[in-house]
Every structure is written in structure tokens, then in C-alpha cells.
Design a protein that fits this description.
With 421 residues, the chain is α+β, with helices and mostly antiparallel strands. It is built from nine helices and 19 strands. The relative contact order is 0.09. A hairpin with a 5-residue loop joins β4 and β5. The chain is globular.
Length: 421
């Protein structure tokens, strides 16, 4: 009898647990829209600009949590050779024929001298004659003054960037701590991740630029938020549990990181890969005191041609799949094969990362390998749109030293999948 009661109670507990973690997608979508708006509002308040344009995009990944993506303003810190003039009423014009140099910075470049603001964008303007081939030769004093002017302007930009990303982090901390429970469907063991990093693909920028890109991530768990709301954690305690990454990229070329990029790029060409392949190099970005992020675009097929009776839904397309040595596939045949290949692609990629990451010697033990993969397009196939694999270097070193098995390290890889296609 006691045994029967125990089984009955266990079934009730399991059913209750399942009911608690089951996601109401409609409610989740609504919560996400409210959360996007709330974080956007907090950011505007941090900069004291109610009319500031801020777009926050969030998505839910079962088993991981909600990722909220901040505007990525790294590209706005570049320099361009332009004429710049301010007209009546604050209007301005920019043209490409002159000696001026305009530096465009995000909204929070407050306090930087020479700033003009229009439509929420500050423009810092300083002039040097370096770009005019017809300009007369400068004296030593003029060269010194020009150098000092450039250094002063760069310091102003650096100061503006520090303030900008600092305020973004403050806004993220406030949202997670005080408003994270707006995501009411989120299970206790899942996360809220707020970052300025794009989804899946790499951010295209000038690799020769001397300006560093900034990466910020702020991550908290729903369980800690609930405990804080219940008074079981103090504000200082929950702040201590929130993980913050605030780092910059470095343009230093490191041979071992280049080598890993080269190995994987070759391994995933269509003549060697058995699943998906890449048609371009796998690029990487080295981040100070964080690790390295590799960016990969994975493809499955090429469109050969279309039937004469093609329709708008793409059913008339005919495909080839180079890694499978298949040609003349219909859309349905191609999609079915993509779904079949995806699990093997993910499995092989994990094993290859672990195998060849051992060639890297320049990372510290607590630094990370991160692989961002844009998955081949396959609408309605129910496979992830993106895949992010991350692994701490200390585990790779343990494998290299014979202190862990390859299977153990592969199992330790953190997997984050983007929304299904």
C-alpha cells in the first residue's frame, strides 16, 4: 500500500513539475515584447534621452533562456574623411571632398568637445591636413600640434565609449535585478543574457582598423531573480551572482589562433566535409581576458536551376549537395537531407573543436573558445538557425595533458541554439 502511495505521489510531482516548466508560447512572445520595451526604456533613462532610438531584440531558446540583444554601435566609432558644416537650425551636411575628418560616435558621447547632435547621433569633428595631398608641407611644430590634436580626439572617443558601454551595463543590471520577472514563463534554471553581440554571424568590420571593438554581456538566472524578489537574496548578493563581461578586441595576430582557423576552414570545405560545408574562411576575433570567438557560415547545398513550372514557394528549385555528391534534388528531397545531416554536423563540429583546439597555446586557462555558426537555411525544417558552442580552455588543456578524455571534454561544451527555422 505504501509503495502504491509513493508511486502516486511521484506521478503527481512529475506532472506538477512538467506543468510548471511547460512554456505557453503565446504568453512567452508577449512577455518578450514587454521585456524588450522595458529594457529599451531603462536605456533611454540612463542617457536621459526619451526620444533616443533604441531597438532591443530578444528571443527564447528552450533549455538556455532569453537572449536580449542591444544595439551594436561598434561600427559607429570609425573615422571617415568628410567635409562637415552646420547650417541654420542645427542642420548639417557631409561631403567627401575635403580636409576634415568626421568621427561618428553613439549618442552618449556627452561632454566631448566639438560634438554636434542630430537625430540621436553625436558627430565629433576635428581637422588635420594629413589627408590632403596638395597641402603644404608642415613644420615640426605643426606636426606636433596635429599629433596632439589627434591624440586628444582619440582620448575623447575612448572616454565616450567607456561611458556608453558603462551605461549599457548599468541598464542591463537594473533590468535583470528589478524587471527580470517580467519573463514569467522562464524556468528557474534558465538565463537572461543581455549582450551587444550579433546572432550567429560575425560582425563585419575593418580588420586593419586600430580601433578596438567592445563586447559586453550581462547574464543572470531566473532562480536568483525569484529569490531576490522573495527576500532570500540581498541586492548586493544578486549583483554578485550576475556575470558581466566587458572586454575589447585586439588586432594582434596570434599564430596558433590563425592556425586553428585555417585547420577548420580546410576541414569544412566541401571536398572533406561529410555534412555541411563552408565557402569562406572561418574568421576569429580575439577578446582581451575573455578568449576567442570564431565565426562560421555552414551551407548544405547549391541551387542548380529551376523547373519551368516553378512556383513562389520555391518548390521548383533543383539542388545539388556537394558533400553528399548528390545532384538534381527537389526542394523536399534537399530539405529532408538537411534535417538528416544536422545532428551529425553538430556532433562532428564538437569533436573537431576539441581535437584541434589543443593546438592553441596562447589562451589562459579561464579564457573561452566560442564558435558562432550560422546554420544553412532550411525553412520549416525545425533545425536551429544558429549554433553557439563554448568551452573553457582549462578543459582543453586537461585533455592535452591526459587528465581528461575527449568524450568528457566534448560533453562539457555549452550549447546554445538559436530559434528553429
Amino acid at each position: 500500500m505504501k509503495h502504491t502511495i509513493f508511486i502516486f505521489l511521484a506521478l503527481i510531482s512529475t506532472t506538477f513539475s512538467w506543468a510548471q516548466t511547460r512554456i505557453d508560447q503565446e504568453r512567452m512572445d508577449r512577455d518578450i515584447e514587454i521585456a524588450e520595451n522595458a529594457l529599451s526604456t531603462i536605456i533611454k533613462q540612463k542617457f536621459d534621452k526619451r526620444n533616443m532610438w533604441v531597438e532591443v531584440k530578444a528571443s527564447y531558446t528552450p533549455g538556455f533562456g532569453v537572449t536580449m540583444r542591444l544595439p551594436n554601435d561598434n561600427f559607429q566609432w570609425g573615422s571617415f574623411n568628410y567635409n562637415y558644416s552646420v547650417g541654420a537650425g542645427g542642420s548639417y551636411s557631409i561631403s567627401g571632398n575635403g580636409n576634415g575628418r568626421a568621427v561618428i560616435a553613439p549618442v552618449p558621447a556627452v561632454g566631448v568637445q566639438g560634438v554636434q547632435t542630430r537625430n540621436g547621433t553625436n558627430v565629433i569633428v576635428y581637422s588635420n591636413g594629413d589627408d590632403d595631398d596638395a597641402a603644404p608641407r608642415k613644420t615640426d611644430k605643426e606636426k606636433k600640434d596635429s599629433k596632439e590634436s589627434r591624440e586628444k580626439s582619440q582620448k575623447s572617443i575612448d572616454s565616450a565609449k567607456t561611458m556608453y558601454y558603462g551605461k549599457m551595463i548599468d541598464a542591463a543590471l537594473e533590468f535583470i535585478t528589478d524587471y527580470g520577472d517580467l519573463l514569467s514563463q522562464l524556468p528557474a534554471d534558465e538565463k537572461i543574457l543581455i549582450t551587444n553581440r550579433g546572432e550567429g554571424g560575425r560582425f563585419y568590420y575593418d580588420y586593419n582598423s586600430k580601433q578596438a571593438r567592445r563586447l559586453i554581456t550581462v547574464e543572470g538566472t531566473k532562480g536568483d531573480i525569484v529569490q531576490f524578489r522573495q527576500g532570500k537574496l540581498t541586492r548586493d548578493q544578486i549583483m554578485g551572482k550576475i556575470k558581466i563581461v566587458n572586454t575589447e578586441s585586439t588586432n594582434e595576430v596570434e599564430t596558433d589562433l590563425e592556425l586553428l582557423s585555417s585547420i577548420l576552414s580546410r576541414l569544412y570545405r566541401s571536398d572533406l566535409s561529410k555534412t555541411f560545408y563552408t565557402e569562406e574562411n572561418i574568421y576569429y576575433e580575439r577578446l582581451k581576458n575573455f578568449g576567442v570567438i570564431y565565426y562560421m557560415s555552414a551551407y548544405s547545398s547549391n541551387e542548380q536551376y529551376r523547373n519551368m513550372d516553378r512556383s513562389e514557394d520555391g518548390k521548383g528549385k533543383i539542388w545539388s549537395m556537394p558533400t553528399q555528391r548528390l545532384e538534381g534534388l527537389t526542394q523536399d528531397q534537399r530539405d529532408k537531407k538537411v534535417v538528416e545531416l544536422y545532428p551529425q554536423f553538430e556532433k562532428d563540429l564538437k569533436e573537431n573543436i576539441v581535437e584541434y583546439a589543443q593546438t592553441v597555446k596562447s589562451l589562459k586557462d579561464d579564457e573561452m573558445f566560442v564558435f558562432n555558426v550560422q546554420i544553412t537555411k532550411c525553412v520549416g525544417c525545425n533545425i536551429p538557425s544558429t549554433l553557439e558552442l563554448s568551452l573553457k580552455n582549462s578543459l582543453v588543456r586537461k585533455l592535452a595533458a591526459g587528465q581528461a578524455t575527449k568524450a568528457e571534454v566534448v560533453a562539457a561544451i555549452n550549447v546554445k541554439k538559436g530559434p528553429n527555422q
